[in-house]
Amino acid sequence: MNRSFSLGGLLRRPEAGALLGLVAVLIFFSIFGGTSFLKIAGMSSWLNVAATLGVIAIPVGLLMIAGELDISVGAMVPAGAMTVSIISGHLGLPIWLGIATTLGLGVLVGLINGLMVVRTVVPSLIVTLGSLFAVQGMVLGLSVFITKSTSVALKTEGLAKILLGDFVFGQLQVMVIWWLLATAAYVYFIHFSRFGNWVFAMGGDKVSARNAGIPTERLTVTLFVLSSTSAAFVGMCQAILYNSAQVAGGQSFIFNSIISVVVGGVLLTGGFGSVIGIFFGTITFAIVTQGIYYTDFDRNWSSLIIGVLLLLAVLMNNTFRRAALSYAPKHKGAK
Amino acid sequence: MAKPIVKLTNINKHFGPIDVLHDISLEVNAGEVLCLLGDNGAGKSTVIKTLAGVFKPSSGTIEMDGEIVEFTGPRDAANRGIATVHQFGGTFPLMSIGRSFFVGVEPTRKFGPFNIFDRKTANEIAVRAVREFGITRIDDGDRLVGGLSGGERQALAIARAVHLGARVLILDEPTAALGVKEAAHVLRIVLQARQRGLAVIFITHNVVHALTVGDHFAVLIRGAKAADFKKGEKSREEITDLMAGGEAMAELEAEIKSYSAGQTPQAN
Questions:
Q1: Per the CB < 8 Å rule, is A212 touching B90?
Q2: Which end of chain A, N or C, is more open, meaning fewer C-beta atoms within 10 Å of its C-beta?
Q3: Using an 8 Å Cβ cutoff, are A51 and A237 in contact?
Q4: What class is the A12-325 domain?
């Protein structure tokens, strides 16, 4: 089938709403804030935010496509930061041990989340709400027990610093490169490999997917491991970047990742969405939170914009999805 | 005569202390439609789940082509050619026709070092397969399944099962949610599947639909087989009575009659 470019075809894609939202936000801030946030220095401010959020938002979005939610990422970010800081900072052990333990913790919590969801059939919102608090409590308790403090310094040098917590091209965090690599990998995984088809099938109808021979349980657990490990990774990189870690913080990642994912056109109940959409959604979110600094508005207004944006995006995405559902190609001539 | 494709002998199934199936024996041959009739809760679903490898029978045997088999799971049953199509087609409303057709068995092609989903092949095969069942309205594999009518979805699911090499097609109330015209369409597809030499197990509680396509009928009541007969051996009324538990239905009808007789004058 040789299909030429069509506007209708573009609008029926899951990322259509996200792209329009991004364009609208860009226009809005260009008018009110000038174009300085599109220059290199300005760009790095929102690209850094987008990258940090985006690494978490994509696996959270994939879980949503598969019909699950993971809000424990809010606890995994500080957990990752504290783990690497306590092991490699407070205890003075090698940084690679800290990194391995942090990622190991991410895998472990993801396994627990995934297995609990699969085995108990309790909604994943509740399961991960439980692990959110459990991990928070554990991190606070252990940190105070080991270090007698809620913040720990971490000094990193060499390859670990360059790879995980440094700046490239001046103001840009190395996380941006991780984010772009991760996005490319996820695009392949979700939209081009056959596993992606399984994720969509699972979100569309879990029982049918299982009957079709898809290992739904293993796939669910894998996705939970991905999201919590990604969150631990982000926390770890932040600790290495800022040379310190705090027990508090990280909660904002819960809502921010969900907003990015939903603005990006993922259906909250699963079965529909795209990685590129989440990518656009994350950038849109980051521009709104950072672009406000380039305008004359008080920055307190940014939450209002995000709230309105979220509602508009959902309405728009619903409209596009309905259009995609009812779409039938026009028949040429009589049949 | 050839051995039946599938034969159940004295299948019992209990969940803990609760007996669900009691000594069920059934058989179905290639090119034959077996209608499994029964009221809600009669055990129809348990029978088909046992056939599809979801449940293991507590006792009794399943034979395929005369050999005793034990399914290790749904995938094993599917590999042996048993396919189940559920009421809503078991398709995914927000996936494209091509993608949902190949869930679990996606065709891939090489793209550099990567294996990628072969959308073009998937769409072509899916559209061709469903058109062979007379659904000519479908010609674009990129359309979302949710945009199809209920009958078209059933056709898509049946075409999928046939394409993937099903020899036994289990249809779980395929016409229950459909209008009259759509149901007729699905019944025609059932007959086409039979003509291709598939063994079809058709679950329904619509006696008219069963009589239209069935060669062989089995009625389940409370987990036991209450009747087993061939086409033309029983009338529609007899079957309806059987399904509802016989006398109970006659009593109920008499009761309803007395109600309407008593109430009609008041209503006017």
A1: yes
A2: C
A3: no
A4: mainly alpha
Q: Give the pair of three-digit tokens for residue B219.
A: 């009625």
What residues does each domain of chain B span? Answer: 6-234, 236-268
What single DSSP character describes residue B144? B
Is pLDDT of A40 > 80? no
Mutate to test the interface with A, among B72, B86, B103 (most CBs of A within 10 A): B103
> Of the given ranges (A47-51, A70-74, A318-322, A324-328), which has the lowest mean pLDDT?
A324-328
Q: Which of B51, B79, B92, B160 to mutate to test the interface with A (most CBs of A within 10 A)?
A: B92
* ipTM of the complex as predicted: 0.78
Task: Name A221's Cβ contacts closer than 8 Å, sequence gap at least 6.
Answer: A110, A111, A114, A115, A118
What's the mean pLDDT when you consider all of chain A?
88
For the stretch B49-86, pLDDT in tens is 898 888 889 899 998 888 888 888 877 888 888 888 87
Q: For B86, which residue in chain A has the nearest alpha carbon?
A: A208
Mark yes or no for CB contact A204/B139 under 8 Å.
no
Distance of CA B90 to the CA centre of its chain: 11
Residue B231, min C-alpha distance to chain A (Å):
32
CATH of domain B6-234: 3.40.50.300
Residue (of B166, B96, B130, B6) closest to A212 by Cα position: B166
